[in-house]
């Protein structure tokens, strides 16, 4: 788990189906922990992004029975895409520069 201020990321390397089950189990545990401590999650901001150049094991992940898969994630000012390329990040920076 990565923690930064009020932001948490859980992750694992997926090499087989058991890894998929493990990651979903961790997501379930995290959600249950927030419920036990009466912490409200903004489910709209809870997303799943699968990173890799060649993803061979397909699996869906859920938080509170809601699937929210995205193809890009902005984290600490850097936009990552699911193929580990930074095209969207570069285009965003160019667009911001052109607006100045």
Question: Please, could you describe this protein's structure?
Answer:
- The model has no long low-confidence stretch (mean pLDDT 87).
- Helices cover 33% and strands 14% of the residues.
- The chain is built from two helices and four strands, in the order ββαββα.
- It has a two-stranded antiparallel ribbon.
- With 100 residues, it is of the alpha+beta class.
- The protein is globular.
What is the strand content? 5-15%
Indicate the mean pLDDT.
Answer: 87
Straight-line distance between termini? 37 Å
Shape category: globular
Counting H and I runs of at least 4 residues, what is the number of helices? 2
Quaternary: single chain
**Major β-sheet annotation:** 2 strands, antiparallel
Produce a short descriptive summary.
The chain is an alpha+beta fold and 100 residues long. It has 2 helices and 4 strands, in the order ββαββα. The chain has one domain.
